[in-house]
Amino acid sequence: MEKRDQAEVLVEAMPYIQKYQNKILVIKYGGNAMTSESLKAEVMRDLVLLRMVGIKVVLVHGGGPEISEMLKRLQIPTKFVDGLRYTDKETAEVVRMVLAGKVNKSLVNQLETAGGKAVGISGMDGHMLVCSKQDEKLGFVGKIESIDTRIITDLLEKGYIPVISTVGCDREGNVYNVNADTAAASIAGELQAESLILMTDIKGLLADKDDESSLIKRVFVSDIQSLVKQGIISGGMIPKVDCCKEAIRRGVNRVFITDGRVPHSILIELLSDEGSGTMFLGG
């Protein structure tokens, strides 16, 4: 890139940086978006850059593929009910070990290597995510009953990027596996975040699921029901869009679904006129 082009990119980004200055941005980074170590390192550098320009970044992560891999290694059978992982007590302990241990600390390490300040926590710390059973047939899959974000705000005020694994608990100390999209939406709402970005392995919401050029760039909450009836929002996209709607209902200004496989997709989404995924708005 020519120096003049570099300067123009920075000038284009300036009003967006000003808009997000000292605002909270929650990013959900899913297991299916973590497609390679090099891409993951790139995402972490982008998050450090956002923090350096004054945006308060909160990273919420899942890790479904890593959980499945560990269960397979331990020869613990994986069972799904209505698309959700059945979680008995033994599986819940594996979830805690993988998410709060392996995945969380790996992301923290990459953020620190990229020049950031990060602290890894789970939904169990400070009883941040207090849960009950979402459904008896799912075992210890958590429905969030209450959220305490004080530990997050403390870390943000000290300049850290909180890295949150979506493991919750109840008052008796039982461990719960919490859906990462749901947790990110709830945390973003509780923090009154400016924006929530759901990074995944799809481009965004498509008018034709087999045609990536049919990306719908902007959706108002009032349009969602009609899009479901038309079949444009269907299958696994329904719970993801429900999380977008819930975050906006809780006070988040904008929610994005964007492709985590695309280099610098967060920066393109937030700091350019172009955007890269689908933006959800109230109204």
Short description:
This protein is 41% helix and 22% strand. With 283 residues, the protein is an alpha/beta fold. It starts with a helix and ends with a strand.
Would you give an account of this structure?
The structure is a single chain. With 283 residues, the chain is α/β, with parallel strands linked by helices. The chain has a single domain, classed as 3-Layer(aba) Sandwich (Carbamate kinase), CATH 3.40.1160. It has helices spanning 3-20, 37-52, 64-73, 89-113, 150-157, 180-191, 224-229, 237-249, 265-271, and strands spanning 24-29, 56-61, 80-81, 84-85, 118-122, 129-133, 142-147, 161-165, 167-169, 175-177, 195-200, 218-220, 254-259, 278-281. It has an 8-stranded mixed sheet with strand order 5-8-2-1-11-13-14-12, sandwiched between helices. A hairpin with an 8-residue loop joins strand 6 (129-133) and strand 7 (142-147). The chain is globular, with a radius of gyration of 18 Å. The mean pLDDT is 91.
What key phrases describe this protein's structure?
single chain; 283 residues; Carbamate kinase; two-stranded antiparallel ribbon; globular
SSE blueprint:
Elements: H1 3-20, E1 24-29, H2 37-52, E2 56-61, H3 64-73, E3 80-81, E4 84-85, H4 89-113, E5 118-122, E6 129-133, E7 142-147, H5 150-157, E8 161-165, E9 167-169, E10 175-177, H6 180-191, E11 195-200, E12 218-220, H7 224-229, H8 237-249, E13 254-259, H9 265-271, E14 278-281
Parallel strand pairs: 1-2, 1-11, 2-8, 5-8, 11-13, 12-14
Antiparallel strand pairs: 3-4, 6-7, 9-10, 13-14
